[in-house]
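Budget justification note: compute hours in this period were largely spent on complex prediction jobs such as the one shown. Inputs:
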Amino acid sequence: MKNATIIGATGFGGLGLIEILLRHPEFKIKQLAARKDVGKRVDEVFPHLKGFCELIIESPEAIDYSGMDIAFFSTPDRAGMTLISEFFSRDIPVIDFSGDFRFNDAETYSAYARFKGMEDKHLAPEILAHAVYGLPEVNADRIKTAKVVGNPGCFAVSIMLGLLPAVEMGLADSQTIICDGKTGVSGAGKNPGEANFYPQRYENVNTYREGKHQHIYEVENVLKSKSKNKVRIMFVPQIVPLNRGILTTMYATAKAGLTTKKAFDAYKEYYEGKPFVVITDKSPNTTDVRGSNRCEIRPMVDERTGMLFITSAIDNLVKGQSGNAVQNANIIFGFDERTGLDVPAFYP
Amino acid sequence: MKNATIIGATGFGGLGLIEILLRHPEFKIKQLAARKDVGKRVDEVFPHLKGFCELIIESPEAIDYSGMDIAFFSTPDRAGMTLISEFFSRDIPVIDFSGDFRFNDAETYSAYARFKGMEDKHLAPEILAHAVYGLPEVNADRIKTAKVVGNPGCFAVSIMLGLLPAVEMGLADSQTIICDGKTGVSGAGKNPGEANFYPQRYENVNTYREGKHQHIYEVENVLKSKSKNKVRIMFVPQIVPLNRGILTTMYATAKAGLTTKKAFDAYKEYYEGKPFVVITDKSPNTTDVRGSNRCEIRPMVDERTGMLFITSAIDNLVKGQSGNAVQNANIIFGFDERTGLDVPAFYP
Amino acid sequence: MKNATIIGATGFGGLGLIEILLRHPEFKIKQLAARKDVGKRVDEVFPHLKGFCELIIESPEAIDYSGMDIAFFSTPDRAGMTLISEFFSRDIPVIDFSGDFRFNDAETYSAYARFKGMEDKHLAPEILAHAVYGLPEVNADRIKTAKVVGNPGCFAVSIMLGLLPAVEMGLADSQTIICDGKTGVSGAGKNPGEANFYPQRYENVNTYREGKHQHIYEVENVLKSKSKNKVRIMFVPQIVPLNRGILTTMYATAKAGLTTKKAFDAYKEYYEGKPFVVITDKSPNTTDVRGSNRCEIRPMVDERTGMLFITSAIDNLVKGQSGNAVQNANIIFGFDERTGLDVPAFYP
Amino acid sequence: MKNATIIGATGFGGLGLIEILLRHPEFKIKQLAARKDVGKRVDEVFPHLKGFCELIIESPEAIDYSGMDIAFFSTPDRAGMTLISEFFSRDIPVIDFSGDFRFNDAETYSAYARFKGMEDKHLAPEILAHAVYGLPEVNADRIKTAKVVGNPGCFAVSIMLGLLPAVEMGLADSQTIICDGKTGVSGAGKNPGEANFYPQRYENVNTYREGKHQHIYEVENVLKSKSKNKVRIMFVPQIVPLNRGILTTMYATAKAGLTTKKAFDAYKEYYEGKPFVVITDKSPNTTDVRGSNRCEIRPMVDERTGMLFITSAIDNLVKGQSGNAVQNANIIFGFDERTGLDVPAFYP
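Corresponding output:
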C-alpha cells in the first residue's frame, strides 16, 4: 500500500481523489490538508463520507512527510509552486491539478500566465524542467519516472483526446480547428458564486471567455508537438445546466478522401491499448461516462460539407481531473492503469 | 378584433399561440382543433389555462370557417398540405408551423422532403407559389400580402438571424459555416419518448442528426438567396438539460480587416428597426430571452485565429415558433409587429 | 397612473415588482433604490429588462418623495423599520416584504423576533398600530385604508390559505396541524450561498429549521384570530430542486362526518369572490401556478384514516411575494384586485 | 462465486442489480432475461455498460436453470407468480421486486391487490407460506433460509425504517402517523410517460395517490406485527424534480416525556449493528445517500407541539430496490451484509 497525501482536500478535486482512493487497492490516504475547514473532520464537510473517511483536515503547514509515497495538489494556480520544493527535495512525486507544472520551461509558463491574466513569474523555475504533462494517453513513458506531473485541464483533456489522432495522423487540413465545449456547473468549483447560482443556472446556457480560455494554451502546446503543421484552436466554452460532464464538438476540414469509416479506423488504431478511450460510431452522451474515467470519442466525416466532425465526452471531475490524476499515479508506481478506476458510469 | 383558429392546439406550438393570443389586444381565439383530446376542454389538457381559455378541442373536420380571419396550423409535416385548400379557397390566411410551406416550388419541397427522409410529393403544389417564408426580419414585405406563411424551424431562426448580416454584407470568407446548436428538451414536442425522458435528460448532453438536421435545408435556401457566393452550413444540433431555449454558436473565417467593433456596427445597422433582434456585446444567455420573442445576437472577431464568432439566443417556443407566428400575423393585418409580444423574459 | 418606488430593487422581490408593474396599467415605476449595485442601470443587473426598464439604481438616501404615491420595501427584516417614518409622515402608503410590520404591537413583534433569533426591539413602535397584515383574502377591508402593510411570508401564504377555511369553519378537530412545505431554491434569495449552490441543489431534497421556521409565528397569529380553539402548527420546510414554487401538504384530524365533498364545498364557499384562490378536486401541481398570482387548493378527506388533507400550491415569488404585494396595492387604490395580475401560469 | 440470473434486466431495477453485481466479489451474472430488447446485448440498451457487461438479453422462456444459485425477479406485479414454480421446485432462491411475495397468505395478498386495484387471485398460493418479507433490518433471521423473498417497495423501506423504533419501542402515542414522501422521477420506471416527461417534471412538484399508495399496505402489515396497538398510516407520495432519492418526513404525537435526546438514543440502540442505517442529529439530505445502500434517519421531538418528527433519506433505486435485494442475497448465502454494497454516495 502506498501512502497518499491530498492537499486541497475540501474542493471537488480533493473529494474526487478521496472517493477514488477509498476504493483503490494500492493507495491509502495518509493525510488531508487544505486552507479551508482546518480542524474539521472531512465527513463534516462531506457528510456522505461518514464511516468511509474520517480524517481531520490539517493546514498545509502541518503536512507530515514521513512515509509519504505521493502527494496530490488539488490546489489553484500558483499554490503548488510555493509548496513543491519540500516534496521535490524528498523525492516524493507530486501530481498538481493547476497550470503550474503543465509547461516545462519558465518562458512558456510565463506566456501561459499572461494569456490567463495572472502574475507571470514562476516561483520554482528550477523544477519546471522535471515537470511532465500528465496526459497518460500521450505521455505514459515520461510519466513513469516523473517527479512532478501537471495534471491537464478538464476541457484540455476533452479536446486533446478528440484531436490528437486527427492532428498526428494528418486527417485534417485546416489550421484553425473549431472546438465548442459544453461543461457542467461543477467545473466552477466548490465556492458559491454567480457561475453556480441555482436560479441563474437551472435553465440557462451561455458562452464565456470566448476564444480566451486558458486551456487553449496547453492544448495548442501539445498539438503543435505532434503535428508537422501549425495548429490553432478556436475554443468557446459554455455552461449548460448539467452538474458533471463535458461534451466537446470539434470541426476541421477533412483531408480529401477521408470517410467516416477511415476516420473511425484511424482513431481505433491510434487508441489501441488505451483502456479509457472508447471510440464509438454512435453519438456520445455525457451520461455514458458520468462518474467514470472514460473518454468516449466519435469521429465522423460530413460528406456534404467535407468537414471532419469529432465529439468527445468525459466527466470533468474524473477523466477531467481526479480520475486522470490517479491514472497518472498508477503509472508512476507501475500499477495497471485501470486500478481503482475500472467502474462503469453512474446511471441513471 | 380578428378571429383566429388554431389547428394542432394541444401541442406546445398550439399552447404557445393560446398563451400569446390571450394577451393580444387584436386577436380573439375563435376555435381550437386537434387530432388528440377531441371533446375535452383545453383547460383539462393544460390546467393552468383554467379561467383563461375554456374552449372545447374539436376535430379538424368540425372547423367552422365562418367569420374566421386567420388560421394557425401547429401541425406536423404533411398535415397542413392536406388542409390548406379549404382555407386558401376562402381567402383565409394561414400560418403553418411545419416544412410544408417553407419552399415555394414543388421541386425544392421534394428535395427538402428527401433530405428529411419523408414522402416527397407535395399534395398542394398549386398553392406553393403563394407561400412565403415567414422570417419577418427578412420577408416582412412579402408576408404582408401572403396567403400562406411557412413559419420557420426553431433552429433555423437562430441560425439565420445570426448569419444573415455576415452573409449578406460579406463579413465572412468561408464557404462552410459551422453552426453548433444547443436546444432545450421542449423542442422534442409534447409526446413522451426517449428524447424527453427525465432520467435520461436531467444530466445529459448529446448530439443528434449531425450534419443532417432538416433545418439545414431552409437555412441554406435563405442564405443562398442573400449571398453572392455559395453558402454551406455544417450544423450539429445538441440537447441540453434545459427546457426552453436555443443557443447557437456560429464560426466562420472573418474577412480580412474585420474587427469586433466593425462586426458589431454592421449587425446593429442590419437590424436597425427590427424590434425583436437585440445586438449585444456581452455573452448572450438563454435566460435573457426565455418566454420572450427576442433574439439576442453577439458577433465578435477572435483576432488570434481570425474567426468571426456569432452567438444567438432565442426561446425555441416563442421566437422559434409561436411568437414568430404571431409576429407574422401582426404584419398580415398591419398591426405593429410588437403587438401582444412586447413582454420581457420570464426570470428567474 | 400612480407613481411607485421600489426599495430593495435588485433582489428577487424587487425584480418581481418591476416585472409586474411594467405590465400594470395603473402604476408607473418612479424610482428604484437598493444598497447593492447603486449607480448601475437595472438592466445591467437583469439583462432581460433591456428596453423595458432602464432606471438607475439609487441609494436609499437619494429617495425622492415628491409625487410618490406608494412605496414597496423589498428589504430584509429590520431594514423597513428604519426607513418607515419618512414615508409615514408624508402619508405615503408602504408595503413591506419583511416581518417588520406583520404584527401590530411591539410585544408580539418582539416575541416573533426572538422566535427568529434576532434583536427584538422594534425601532418604529409607534407606527405598528397602523400596520395591517397583508393577506388580501382575509384583510381586504383593512388593507384599503392601511398606511403600512406587512406583506406575508411565502410559506405563510401557502399555509394560511390552505388552513383558514378548515380552522374558521371548524372542519378539523386537531389542535396541532401538520404542515409539510416544499419550496423552490429561489426562496433563498439572490445572494449565492450554500442554499442555492447548484452542485448541492440540483439533485437534493432536505428539511431545515424543522418546527422553527419564523413563518410559523405569523400563521399561528392569524389562525388563532379566526378560531374558537387554540391552533398550533408543526411546520417543516424543505428545499427541493425546483426554482420557483411552494407545495404545502397539510394534515389535520377531520371533524366527524366530514367528507371530501363537504370539505370541497366549504372551501369553495369560503373563497367565493376571491379571484386568486382556485379550489380544485385534482392534485395541484406547482406548474399550474408558476408565474401566476394564483393559489391552488385541494381539500380532501382520507376516509380510511379520518384525516383532512389539504394541498396548496403557489409561486413563492408571486402570490408568495411580489404578486400579493401588488394585489394589496390594487386594494389600497381601489383598483380591481386582478389589475396587472391576471395572467396564466408560464408553461412549460 | 455464486451464479445469479436477473429477470427483468432492462428496467432500472435490473440495471441496478447489474451495476452492483459487477463489483460484487461473490456473485457472477449468469444470465439476463427480459420481455423487452430480447436478442440485444445489454450494453446496446445501456451504453455505459460497454466493456463491463456484454451479455445478450434472452426471453424468460430461454432461462437456463443449470448451475443457477439465485434469481432476481425485477418484474412488475403478477409476473413473478407465474414464473416462481420452476425456481421453487429446483430449490433456487428467488428475490422478487414486486408485491407478489410481500405477504405470506393468499388472503392478505388479495386484500393488497384490491387496495392497489388489480386482479386479486394469487397464482402460486402454495408458495406464499414460504415467502419472507425482505427487510433485512427486521427479518434477517428468516431471510437466511428463505426460498422466496418479497423485496419491499421503495417508499415502504423509507417509512418502515423511519417508524419501526418509534412503533416497537412505544415512542409515539398516535394511532395515525403522517408520512409525507418525496420521490425522484426514476421511481416511475423506464418507460416514457407523463410521470417522467421532462417538460412537465423539470420544474414541478405534485402529490399523487393521496392516502391510497399501495405501499401503505405492506407498511401497516409490518408495523402492526411489531406494535401492541393498532397502527395506521396516512401516506401522501409526491414527485419532485430529482432523479434518484426519497425523503420521507413522518409525524406522530410523542409519548409524554420523550425528548430529542431520548429518541435519538432509542433509535441508535434499535439499529445497533445494522450497517446500512445511519442515525443522525442533522437534517438528512438525499445527496448523502445517492447511489449508496444507506438509510439516513433523524428522529427529533418538537417540544413546542409535542410531535415526534422523523426524517428518512434513501436512494430509491438502491436501498429502495436493488441494493436491498443484494443485501438479502448476501444474507441468504451467509456473506457479510455489506459485501458489494459498501460504497459511499455518489457526490456531487
